[in-house]
Amino acid sequence: MQLRLAELADAKRLQALSSLLGYSYPLEKLTVNLTTSLADTKQLILVVEHDGLVLGYCHAEYYEPLYADKLLNVLGLVVDKSHQGQGIGSALLDAIASYALEQGIRAIRLNSGEDRNAAHCFYEKNGYISNKQQKNFIKRLG
Fold it and tell me: What is the value of pTM for the model shown?
């Protein structure tokens, strides 16, 4: 297995993996977003590949609030269901942590839906702690 930076050629597989999280998003739009993310020096998308197939990815970005030190914010982490439990997710989180430390960032944050109990256990096993309960609000425009 190889851990590497995502590439534009990974778009279709990243779309399929994202759908496992419940995010059905058109490939054309995902490709545009991926192109933007790959060019953004404040974003990092890592993938784990085996025999030419991307098995999982982690997407993180800088989180720079006025009221706290800069963090990395994990926007998405997913591993193909048939390859879960093999250390891929942990390897992705470890790689993100190494990157953060290289950048002088001392903390990583992530959000996980309240019904994703298995994910919560996974994050806790990897050293993450839940520090608050909150609601996520969104306002659709147009």
Answer: 0.92
